[in-house]
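Assemble and predict.
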Amino acid sequence: MEKILDCMGMACPLPVIHAKKAIESFTEDGTLTVKVDNDTAVQNLTRLGEHNGFAVSSSQPGEKEYLVSMQVKAGAGKKPAEVPADAISCAVPEKGGKVVVLSGDTMGSGDEKLGKKLMKAFVFALTSQDVLPEKVICYNRGAFLTTEDPDTVKDLKSLAEAGTVIMTCGTCLDYYGLKEKLQVGIISNMYDIAEALMNASSVIRP
Amino acid sequence: METEAKLTRLASCAGCGAKVGAGTLSKLLQDFKTHTDSRLIVGFDKSDDACVYKINEETALIQTVDFFPPIVDDPYLFGQIAAANAISDIYAMGGEPRLALNLLCAAEQMKEEWIREILRGGYDKAYEAGVIISGGHTIRGSDPLYGLSVTGFGDPAHILQNSGAEAGDILILTKPLGIGILTTAAKAELISGDLMEKIYKQMAALNRDACSVMKKYNVHSCTDVTGFGLMGHSCEMAQGSGCTIHLVTGKIPYHEEAYEYADMGLVPAGAYRNREFAEHDTEIRGTVSRTLQDILYDPQTSGGLLMAVPESEASSLLAELQDTVPCACEVGFVTEREEKALVLEGSR
């Protein structure tokens, strides 16, 4: 697998962010080459490669043109413990501003087991929508969806990779003792949650 | 989310990281004609934080200016940080800030409401510091910029220059490092809200309390750690004082999250410029990881005060500092000039 990334004209930290995403997309071993126009980016990309344990080399074909190549090992760069919040939402195009609120770990009222099953199915179904939500906000028992439930964590991660911001209420994580277990997205506070809801074009509650 | 202010997206580099390198600057200023005046106690030549002009035996005027592009998206917060950073130069000279003038460059895309919020941040911070903003100058331009020109007063006999450190002094730093790296990570939207809150608070915090404690002691030298990073500012202090500064890496306070981000390549360009400036006059003893070095070279926005105090007074100064400035730490010591101006004492 070979990938070439053109990051000419980009200042730090953008080349690193793009390269990080590219590394995560490698399904087999291969070479990632990043084209940049400044020395800081060369040094930072070298860091990123070495950080992941890849062999890195760089060259300067033109006065303001540098190539950084790294031998990517597939599956690397996905070490969630390293980065507290893995939701990279920079340079995400506008998506119509839909916000999904997950205020519990069940869907609908009735049998709890059924409710949990429905919630898993709903989160999975979200990932296959044509228009993805701009944000998913998890609070109260919704905090279990970004921490304890491997199925919803997996689906929310793929939403995050597609640019959806996953926010989990910090107070709720604290309350349920889940703060160390956050698997996807960012820890948020009530101010940010209120702002996200106020600014949403529509709020969806399953 | 269109109404949300994304100030940092309008700027090409952030905060004090935008500062032109110390090396470039001294080259630029070479051979310029200036008048001499015996009452100008601190001028151009010493690359100090502010200039100082002795009005009479009791009073010296201290003058400084500082401005930079947005380091945070929230305009009100940006205003506070820029003001705290500008006022800090007066504290670093051991003075009392009194008057200030706004310097503002408004980019086309900025809403009037954001401009107002930036200014409100500046006024609120100035108010907290007891400073009166008495005017200013606002222009339109491509990048947003904000800062203050600040005037303060001090006792001419007790002005704290960055060139007064003496062998035997202990070095104390009042704010933890890593701000440049963490704001770079924040720009990449990689850091948690809690951590962001913590570093924003740190940047907006005035160095007033640190300064008022410092003035009770026989401190020899002081500077604030900003764009040139701990390494750059220490290097200037050592060179100006004609001695060698030893920074002991195990003691230096930094935000531990910055280590991870630096290691993965989120190092601001300013850190590399600072390395270029200070590296040739630095000796490393023992091992100091490259990543830790990045943190020591990292440009700080509205950083802490770095003070050199005689060893006999260091522990009581530190103890009193820690009452109001809990992050204050001993970071190193000063010796007679050795081969290099700066020695990094790593782990062995």
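Residues 80-96 of chain A have pLDDT under 50 and may be disordered.
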